[in-house]
Amino acid sequence: MALTNTTLSAAVAMNDDSIKVTATTGFADGQVIRVDNEFMAQAGAAAGTVIKVRRGLDGTAQVAHGILADVVTGLMTDFPAPPPGHPVQVPPTEIARATLGADTTLNTADLPKSLWLTYVITKATAAAITLGNPSKAQNGLKITFRSATAAAHVITYTAGIYGDTTSSDLLTFAAKVGASCTLEANGGLWGAIALANVTAA
């Protein structure tokens, strides 16, 4: 059996136990589902386009996923080795990946316990993203936002990525695919590591 590809038709919160997909062709009870890079198991027959799932298989980070996130389903043996369902060791430097397909607010509680998070922005028009402060326990956590669309996305971070509030509280993406910014948590604040086609003002 081959893998089946679709997308989320609605955002999924970190603790949701079901997902809503664009099409359920190829889905079946017990199959493995990958949304972004979180593995799940289908836990019952689809009800319309809603599918019950068990989250965070094989130690993958259970995170929120945005509308239009990539979804793949199939048998365990369809996925590259080692297939889901087999013991694997998740390295401490795991990179969690999620999709932002709509305007959103990211709070500390929404962030998975990973050392590096990558959010791919897929909204066709300019996305408005609000970023809350990290906790002091998250020192060293890095977060990257990368645009997959040619839109002028804006991230609002009230404290400012240079700690100067109104001089660096808005991160505006050039309307280019691949524009990105990487931030790091330290002392309860986000600071800039790298900006590529992103302006802080």
Question: How does this structure look, described?
Answer:
The protein contains no helices and 16 strands. It has strands at 4-7, 18-20, 32-35, 38-42, 50-54, 70-74, 95-100, 104-106, 116-121, 128-131, 142-147, 154-156, 170-173, 180-186, 189-196, 198-200. The chain starts with a strand and ends with a strand. 0% of the residues lie in helices and 38% in strands. Residues 89-93 have low confidence and may be disordered. It is mainly β. Strands 1-6-3-4-5-2 form a six-stranded antiparallel beta sheet, with no helix packed on it. Strands 7-9-11-14-15 form a five-stranded mixed beta sheet, with no helix packed on it. A five-stranded mixed beta sheet has the order 8-10-12-13-16, with no helix packed on it. It is elongated, with a radius of gyration of 17 Å. The protein folds into two domains: 4-78, Thrombin, subunit H, CATH 2.40.10; 95-200, Jelly Rolls (Sandwich).
What count of domains describes the coordinates? Answer: 2
Count of alpha and pi helical runs: 0
Structural class: mainly beta
- State the shape: elongated
**Which topology of the largest domain does CATH recognise?**
Jelly Rolls
What is the straight-line distance between the termini? 51 Å
**What pattern of helices and strands is seen along the backbone?**
EEEEEEEEEEEEEEEE
Note the beta-strand portion. 35-45%
Biggest sheet, open or closed, and with what strands and sense?
Answer: 6 strands, antiparallel
Q: Report the uncertain regions.
A: 89-93
How many E-type strands? 16
Average pLDDT confidence is 87
Q: Taking Cα atoms only, what radius of gyration do you get, to the nearest Å?
A: 17 Å
Percent of residues in helical segments? under 10%
Query: Mind telling me which CATH architecture of the largest domain this is?
Result: Sandwich
Widest sheet: strand order?
1-6-3-4-5-2
Tell me the name of the CATH class of the largest domain.
Mainly Beta
